[in-house]
Amino acid sequence: MAFHLSIILLVKNGGMRLELLMESLCKQNYKGNFEIIAIDSGSEDDSIQILKNITPYCIE
After folding, report:
1. From CA 8, how far away is CA 21, in angstroms rounded?
2. Which residues contact 31 (CB under 8 A, 6 or more apart)?
3. Which tens digits make up the pLDDT trace of 21-57?
């Protein structure tokens, strides 16, 4: 599948802000296909778990 838009997030200890951001991005009414790429930089909080709970596909 080709995406019309790629959103790249650099994450480190995003926690609650990350969860709110992901919910907001998923509610957008963008007409094209888009992907969200999150790159974690050694988070020590629950950022990875938040991403796993929200996104259908997560690579560690």
Report:
1. 12
2. none
3. 988 887 888 888 888 889 999 999 999 888 888 766 5
b/e map 9-34, b = 16+ CB within 10 Å: bebeebeeebbebbeeeeeeeeeeee
Residue 35 neighbours by CB distance under 10 Å: 13
Q: Quick check: 48 and 40 in contact, CB under 8 A? A: yes
- Please tell me the pTM assigned to this model: 0.76
Residue 51, classified by CB atoms within 10 Å of its CB into exposed (0-12), middle (13-18) or buried (19+), is buried
